[in-house]
Design brief:
two-stranded antiparallel ribbon, globular, single chain, mainly alpha
């Protein structure tokens, strides 16, 4: 299972900042809900464990959401952030589509 701590580690931070940790945990919960809706509940096995690749999708999407939660482009010194989370990437969709239930 993906956690706020895993997202922060992926981004190169530790979980010592309670505000950032709370934001990362909320991002994981949000992305997990989006994954569940997109896959129509087939993202987990009957045992409750996530299927192959799902944790990685949650991790990368939550990391993008934490990096720029407002979605507003900004520049700070030599760093330029453009846009925020606008949906799943093509690679993430390729993983999610393996488990998505589609109409006939």
């Amino acid at each position: 299972m993906t956690s706020g701590t895993a997202v922060l580690a992926f981004l190169g931070h530790d979980d010592s900042d309670p505000v950032l940790f709370t934001q990362a945990t909320a991002a994981v919960a949000t992305v997990e809900a989006m994954v569940a809706a997109y896959c129509r509940g087939r993202h987990k096995l009957a045992s409750g464990q996530t299927r192959d690749g799902i944790d990685e999708v949650i991790l990368t999407a939550a990391a993008r959401l934490v990096t720029n939660p407002s979605g507003i482009p900004y520049d700070t010194g030599g760093v330029s952030i453009r846009g925020g989370f606008t949906g799943f990437t093509l690679v993430e969709l390729a993983v999610l589509n393996r488990y998505r239930v589609r109409a006939l």
